[in-house]
Amino acid sequence: MVAKHNVVGFVGGGKMAEALISGLLRDTAIDTAQVVVCETHPERAQYLRDTYGIRSCGFEDLADRADIIVIAVKPQVVPEVIESLAPHITDRHMVISVAAGVATSTFEATFDRTPVVRVMPNTPALVGQGIAVVAPGAKADQEHLDIAKRILATTGVVLQLPENQLDAVTAVSGTGPAYFFLLAELLIDAATSVGIERDVARDLVVQTALGAAVMLRDSGDDAAGLRAAVTSPGGTTAAAVDVLEERGLRDIISAAVHAARDRSVELGNKA
Ligand SMILES: NC(=O)C1=CN([C@@H]2O[C@H](COP(=O)(O)OP(=O)(O)OC[C@H]3O[C@@H](n4cnc5c(N)ncnc54)[C@H](OP(=O)(O)O)[C@@H]3O)[C@@H](O)[C@H]2O)C=CC1
Ligand SMILES: O=C(O)[C@@H]1CCC=N1
Question: Where does the Pyrroline-5-carboxylate reductase dimerisation domain start and stop, copy by copy (predicted)?
Answer without folding.
Answer: 163-267
